[in-house]
């Protein structure tokens, strides 16, 4: 059984400041860096053959810290923009509470979690899905078919898009999916890529 591990990056500086990051390249916060050993413990029992992540610093830093903790710095790491966070457009850099005051809590929630509503000049989850899923199918599914165990370290909405694809979550229900900072999802697949089990 091939294993797929999906890990949301550790807490970034703008996560700490409650600001929309999106494509803005923000490093991890001190708290995020300090949480790496505990997060790595959740991966210690898994044989990992390959890692995928995005070019955003918060994702690459998370990979580096986790692999160092696991003494697996030699693992191959593939970096691709397909796994970047959604572009939050004009919301990028804004404090989330201030955005709620300006646009209304309901509208901000739809921009952040719904399927096809995009923030001004930004991406909807549907947009993220349309760039993330083809990459996942072409590269990560190919590795899984070969029986490789894969770790994907990425941002919230690129991971939500992948989970939607794997679990066949409806466009309506995807609004309910949240993955916490350093949240880990584990899947097992048979050779036909049928999901065997998953856990959050």
UniProtKB/TrEMBL annotation:
Pathway: Carbohydrate degradation; glycolysis; pyruvate from D-glyceraldehyde 3-phosphate: step 3/5. Substrate binds at residues 8-15, 58, 85-88, 96, 112-113. It is an enzyme of class 5 (isomerase). It catalyses: (2R)-2-phosphoglycerate = (2R)-3-phosphoglycerate. One of its GO terms (molecular function) is phosphoglycerate mutase activity. Its EC number is 5.4.2.11. It holds the Pfam family His_Phos_1. One of its GO terms (biological process) is glycolytic process. Belongs to the phosphoglycerate mutase family. BPG-dependent PGAM subfamily. HAMAP family: PGAM_GpmA (MF_01039). PANTHER family: PHOSPHOGLYCERATE MUTASE (PTHR11931). This is 2,3-bisphosphoglycerate-dependent phosphoglycerate mutase. It comes from Candidatus Nealsonbacteria bacterium RIFCSPHIGHO2_02_FULL_43_13. The lineage of its organism: Bacteria, Candidatus Nealsoniibacteriota. The gene is gpmA.
